[in-house]
Amino acid sequence: AQSVTQLGSHVSVSEGALVLLRCNYSSSVPPYLFWYVQYPNQGLQLLLKYTSAATLVKGINGFEAEFKKSETSFHLTKPSAHMSDAAEYFCAVSHTGGFKTIFGAGTRLFVKA
Amino acid sequence: DTAVSQTPKYLVTQMGNDKSIKCEQNLGHDTMYWYKQDSKKFLKIMFSYNNKELIINETVPNRFSPKSPDKAHLNLHINSLELGDSAVYFCASSLRQREGKDTQYFGPGTRLTVL
């Protein structure tokens, strides 16, 4: 079975500050890991994904995430927050042969001016 | 061109009514999904279809019946609507979910309100 835990349902940062959104996963098989973003009143869109190639994954809008097997983590970072980053962020896990992607509960990012 | 589209965007109805939500994708994907997002933003998969075949049915009440007339369409029909069905319903698609690593593309959502 697979699961995802996102630490912190809400994260608030100042514009220009570092963004760190935490995600830990549980999986009995090698995982594929995703970060999706949901802007208000929109569907989810992919930010980045880890598919067993490089452990440091770069995504859109300056975001990146690092897969750490020893820590079962896939935290999302961005060096400098922008007001337009305010959104809901979802970490998700799946695996080869599985038709189901498991989503975390989401973290709402607030960016203060 | 919209990759994954859903209609309607908003649906307000009375308890006990029957309603349908339609979804279409023009990405040529094999796999389509229905998700339910509750008021706390928790996203839960309901159904998954691969090449028109039902793959996942996540203990959803049988009042919910998906139908996939072809690979590009996955509709959701809901009978005898209840207050607890109020949520945002998202359709999504992916190329080959058996691979596990394919990106899912989401529609804009249908906000269902049951009064």
Question: What order do the helices and strands come in, and which of them pair?
Answer:
The complex is a heterodimer of chains A (113) and B (115).
Chain A: E1 3-7, E2 10-14, E3 19-26, E4 32-38, E5 44-50, E6 56-58, E7 64-68, E8 73-78, E9 87-94, E10 102-103, E11 107-112
Parallel strand pairs in A: 2-11
Antiparallel strand pairs in A: 1-3, 3-8, 4-5, 4-9, 6-7, 7-8, 9-10, 9-11
Chain B: E1 4-7, E2 10-13, E3 19-25, E4 31-37, E5 43-50, E6 53-57, E7 64-70, E8 73-78, E9 87-94, E10 105-106, E11 110-114
Parallel strand pairs in B: 2-11
Antiparallel strand pairs in B: 1-3, 3-8, 4-5, 4-9, 5-6, 7-8, 9-10, 9-11
Name the descriptors:
heterodimer, A: 113 residues, mainly beta, 5-stranded antiparallel beta sheet, 11 strands, 0% helix, B: 115 residues, 7-stranded mixed beta sheet, 4-stranded antiparallel beta sheet, 55% strand
Largest sheet of chain A: 6 strands, mixed
Total beta strand runs of chain B: 11
Describe the oligomeric state of these chains in a short phrase: heterodimer
Q: What does the main sheet of chain B amount to?
A: 7 strands, mixed
Radius of gyration of chain B: 13 Å
* Distance from first to last alpha carbon of chain B: 34 Å
Span between termini of chain A: 41 Å
Structural class of chain A: mainly beta
Description:
The complex is a heterodimer of chains A (113) and B (115). Helices cover 0% and strands 55% of the residues of chain A. Chain A has 113 residues and is mainly β. In chain A, strands 2, 4, 5, 9, 10 and 11 form a 6-stranded mixed sheet that branches. In chain A, strands 1-3-8-7-6 form a 5-stranded antiparallel sheet, with no helix packed on it. In chain A, a hairpin with a 4-residue loop joins strand 7 and strand 8. Chain B has 115 residues and is mainly β. Chain B has strands at 4-7, 10-13, 19-25, 31-37, 43-50, 53-57, 64-70, 73-78, 87-94, 105-106, 110-114. Helices cover 0% and strands 55% of the residues of chain B. Chain B starts with a strand and ends with a strand. In chain B, strands 2, 4, 5, 6, 9, 10 and 11 form a 7-stranded mixed sheet that branches. In chain B, strands 1-3-8-7 form a 4-stranded antiparallel sheet, with no helix packed on it. The A-B interface holds A 32, 34, 36, 38, 41-46, 49, 51, 88, 90, 94-101, 103, 105-106, 108 and B 4, 31, 40-45, 48, 50, 55-56, 90, 92, 97-101, 103-109.
